[in-house]
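User: Design a sequence. Structure:
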């Protein structure tokens, strides 16, 4: 058993974690601080122990929020954050920077904001194409040796990049988007992770809300919501994708579960080495997601889900061209 799973077991973490981004970043208006703190408190009380944040979320505000909410509980939880991508205070622009000196500086700032002396897992949020992955990973490895982090992670990278990274320093986990309607890890990354003994942490396992049925009309999403710029949510593609969702909703209704729970159970059935980290602003949805941990699907149900929303059926790429330019993961071609 890897140190990743040993630590999760040590804090009695469910096999579903909590992505904290939504509270401060990505989906329109920011949740008011008091409400966000209450939501994180409730998440801990209902059993969540694996909390995931990043330097860029809310331009560092999310780390500060998580640090405040979880102060005094540090020994009871698994805390992960990310570096290498940040918002420049002067310009408000997103900057990818994987230079060793930048990663060290960001790590030390993350520790301060999160009110802790170490992180259980620290990811390189994006590959900096100007910096060899070996240099970035080597710098994170030195942070492990200094006790500032317990494990090195990578996010949105290809199997090829993972192999190069592992040759430099052991990688604990890779974070990648993985869900019923985003199956890119199945191209090559998942096999590479298993060959190398690396866990796969699945972000957006509910398809950025699509797999819950919450997004009725993308045109009504708030200004600033990242989904407004994603091709799958466009006026051209979304009606087609909604038809695919209706198949999932009908199956969920037949099984007396929610579509989101069914999507999480499908992902968990793909392997014990896959840890979904759905994000939500709502404690009720947090509770609903966590309940999927005990949901077991029979082979017939899994076969039906496998045949739904396959890459050739989904309309639209997962990212716009500009967003895709920063991503290193393998893509399907048809």
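Assistant: Done.
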């Amino acid at each position: 058993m890897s140190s990743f799973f040993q630590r999760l077991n040590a804090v009695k973490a469910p096999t579903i974690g909590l992505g904290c981004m939504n509270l401060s970043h990505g989906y329109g208006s920011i949740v008011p601080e008091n409400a966000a703190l209450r939501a994180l408190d409730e998440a801990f009380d209902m059993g969540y122990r694996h909390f995931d944040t990043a330097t860029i979320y809310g331009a560092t505000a999310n780390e500060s929020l998580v640090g405040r909410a979880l102060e005094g509980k540090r020994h009871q939880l698994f805390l992960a954050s990310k570096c290498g991508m940040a918002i420049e205070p002067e310009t408000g622009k997103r900057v990818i920077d994987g230079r060793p000196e930048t990663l060290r500086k960001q790590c030390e700032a993350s520790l301060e904001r999160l009110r802790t002396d170490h992180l259980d897992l620290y990811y390189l949020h994006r590959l900096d194409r100007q910096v060899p992955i070996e240099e970035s990973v080597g710098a994170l490895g030195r942070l492990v040796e200094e006790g500032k982090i317990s494990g090195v992670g990578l996010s949105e990278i290809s199997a090829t990049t993972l192999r190069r990274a592992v040759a430099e320093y052991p990688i604990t986990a890779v974070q990648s988007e993985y869900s019923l309607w985003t199956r890119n890890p199945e191209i090559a990354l998942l096999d590479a992770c298993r060959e190398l003994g690396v866990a796969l942490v699945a972000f957006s396992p509910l398809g950025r809300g699509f797999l819950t049925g919450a997004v009725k009309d993308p045109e009504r999403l708030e200004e600033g919501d990242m989904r407004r710029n994603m091709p799958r949510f466009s006026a051209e593609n979304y009606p087609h994708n909604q038809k695919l969702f209706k198949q999932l909703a009908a199956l969920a209704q037949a099984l007396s579960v929610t579509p989101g729970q069914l999507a999480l159970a499908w992902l968990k059935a793909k392997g014990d080495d896959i840890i979904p980290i759905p994000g939500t602003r709502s404690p009720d949805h947090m509770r609903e997601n966590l309940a999927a941990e005990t949901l077991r699907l029979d082979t017939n149900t899994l076969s039906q889900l496998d045949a739904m929303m396959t890459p050739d059926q989904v309309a639209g790429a997962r990212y716009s061209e500009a967003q895709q330019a920063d991503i290193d993961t393998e893509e399907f071609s048809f």
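The first helix runs from residue 3 to 10. The beta strands are 18-19, 50-52, 78-83, 85-87, 94-96, 121-124, 152-155, 173-177, 199-203, 274-276.
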